[in-house]
Amino acid sequence: MSAAGSSEEQFLCSICLEVFSEPVSTPCGHNFCKRCISQHWDTEVCKCPLCNMSFSIRPELYVNTFLCEMVSKSKLEAELQSKQVSKPGDVQCDVCSEPKLKAVKSCLVCLSSFCESHLQPHLTVSGLKRHQLMEPVDDLEDRMCPTHQRPLELFCNTDQSCVCTMCVLLEHKNHPYVSLEEACEHRRSSLQKTVAQRQDMVEQRRLKVQKIRAALDQSQREADRETQQMVKVFSEIMESLPDSTQRFDRCACVLGKQSFSSGRFYFEVQVKGKTNWDLGVAQESVKRKGKITYSPTHGYWTIRLRNRDQYSASADPPVALSLQRPPQKVGVFVDYGAGLVSFYDINSGDLIYSFTDCSFRGKILPYFSPCNNEEGKNSAPLIITDVQTLT
C-alpha cells in the first residue's frame, strides 16, 4: 500500500513488514498483526519481538481499536489520493506540488485550476464564492475575452465566434447568440449526424459492391463456360470497312450492341498488358465523327489510361486518379435510375471512381477504346465479358 506521506511506517507490523491486519497490543505496549504474534508465540517463548520482554503466562490479545481505525483511515486516504493523481490528458491542479492531483474545477477569475482540496476556499470564503467556476480546462487564458477580460461564455451565431457578456452589448449588439454549452452541443450533434451519414454512405457502397460480387459469384460457373466466347475488342489488322453513321471515324473505339434505358447492369473489361485504353458508357446519340470531347456534358462517362500509369476520369473538368496498383481487370456498374456509374478494381475490390447524379438521356451503351497499337507497345486487346443485367 502507498500510505499517506511519512506516516506509513507506523502502520507496519514488525514481523511481516506489511500494513497491520487486525492489530493487537502486547502488555509492553507494542503492536503486531494478531495472526503474526500468535504464530510467533506458537514457536517461540512468549516475549515481545521488539523489546524482548518475557511473559510467564501467554497474554490474552485484544484488538487495538484506535490503531485499527487509523489504519483504515490511512488506507482510505491513500486510495483517494491514488484515484485523484492526474493522469496523461487530465487537467492538473495548479496549486499542488508533485505529484499533482487531478483538477475538479477551473476558476475564470483566478485563471487557475484546483483539485478538490485546494478548491475548498472557493466554496467557503465569501469573496471567492463569487468567482465563476467551470469544468476543468487547460487553456484558461484562451477562455477570456481579450477586449473586456470577461469569460467567453456565449457564442455569436452571426460572426460564428465566442464572445463575452460585454461583447453582446457592444460589438455584437443585435446579433443572435446562444450559450457556449448550447453551441458546443449543437456542433457535437451536427458532427455526429455528419459522421453517421458518412458511415451510412460507406455502408451502402459496401453493400452495393457486395451485391455486385454476389451476382458475379452466382454467375461464375457460367462465366467460366463462356471464357472462350469472350470478345476481344479490335484486332491488330487495319481493315477497310464501309462508312456508317454508327461508326467512329477518327478514333479506335466502339459501343456495345446492348443498350439500356432503365435498371442496372454490369460488365468487366480485362486491361492487363495495355499502356492506353478508355472504357465506360456513352449515350446512344453521342457524336461519332470528327473530333470528340469525352465528358458527361457530351454524353460520355469514362475513365482512361495514358502512358502506362496516368489514370484519369473524363469528368467536367477531368479528374486525375491516383491508384495504389494498376488494375488488371475493371468492373463497370451502372444504375440508370440513380444516375450512377462506378468503376472497380476487380482483383482488390477497390472503388476507382464514381460518376454521380448523371443526367442520362435515352439509351446508354458500354463504350470501349483499346487505343492505337503504338508499334506493338499497346498490342494487348481489351477483353470484355457479356453484359449482365442485375435485379
Automatic annotation (TrEMBL):
Domain RING-type: 13-52
Matches recorded under Pfam families: SPRY (PF00622), zf-B_box (PF00643), zf-RING_UBOX (PF13445)
Domain B box-type residues, every copy: 140-180
GO MF term (any one): zinc ion binding
Any Gene Ontology biological process: innate immune response
Keyword Zinc attached: yes
Highest taxon of source: Eukaryota
Coiled-coil segments on the chain, per record: 202-229
Name assigned to this protein: Bloodthirsty
SMART domains assigned: BBOX, RING, SPRY
PANTHER family: B-BOX DOMAIN CONTAINING (PTHR25465), BLOODTHIRSTY-RELATED GENE FAMILY, MEMBER 16 ISOFORM X1-RELATED (PTHR25465:SF32)
Lineage: Eukaryota, Metazoa, Chordata, Craniata, Vertebrata
Domain B30.2/SPRY: 194-389
SUPFAM superfamilies recorded: B-box zinc-binding domain, Concanavalin A-like lectins/glucanases, RING/U-box
Species this chain originates from: Neogobius melanostomus (round goby)
